[in-house]
Amino acid sequence: MDIKPVHKATCHCGAVELALTMPNGLEDPRRCSCSMCRKRGAIAASVLLENLKVVKGEDNLTLYQFNTMTAKHYFCKTCGIYTHHHRRSNPHQFAINVACLEGVNPYELEPVRITDGINHPSDAS
Predict the structure, then answer these.
(1) In this predicted model, what pLDDT tens digit does every residue of 15-35 receive, in sequence order?
(2) Which family does this protein fall into (predicted)?
(3) Residue 56: inside a domain, yes or no?
(4) Considering its fold, how many domains does the chain have in total?
C-alpha cells in the first residue's frame, strides 16, 4: 500500500475530492462500534484538521450529526459516500474514510482494530 505524503481521496462519483497530508501514512486505522459507524462499516484513519483540504465539491458535501451533535459527518450529496468526519473524541482531527483514498484497498488492512464507540470516552464521568 503506497500512501503518498499528500494523498488524494474521492467519493464514488468524483464530485468530492480531498487532499490529505499524511506524512506518517495511515494513522490509527480503526473501525468504531457506535451506531453510525456500525451501519456505515468504514475503516477510518486520522489526519490533523489542517491536513485535510477540500479540493473540489465542498458545496456537494452534506453534514449529518446525531446524539450529542458534536461530531460532524460529511457525505457526498450525489453518491452518498461518507468521506470524512470531524472527530468527537479528538476535536483536533478529522477521521477519513480509508476506502476513499485513491489506489488504496481497505481490505489489505484487515484485521483492523475496533474502538468502543458505544462507551465513548467523552461520556465518562
Answers:
(1) 999 999 999 999 889 998 888
(2) Belongs to the Gfa family.
(3) yes
(4) 1
Residue 15 DSSP one-character state:
S
Give the Å distances, CA to CA, from 118 to 5, 47, 86, 114, 121: 33, 22, 18, 11, 9
Range of the domain at 72: 6-83+93-115
Q: What is the CATH number of the domain that holds 36?
A: 2.170.150.70
Q: Which of 56, 46, 61 is nearest to 96 (CA)?
A: 46
Which burial class, exposed, middle or buried, applies to 111 when counting CB atoms under 10 A from its CB (0-12, 13-18, 19+)? exposed
pLDDT tens digit sequence for 67-122: 899 999 999 999 999 999 999 889 999 999 999 999 999 988 878 877 776 776 66
Instruction: Please state whether the predicted TM-score (pTM) of the whole model is above 0.85.
Output: yes
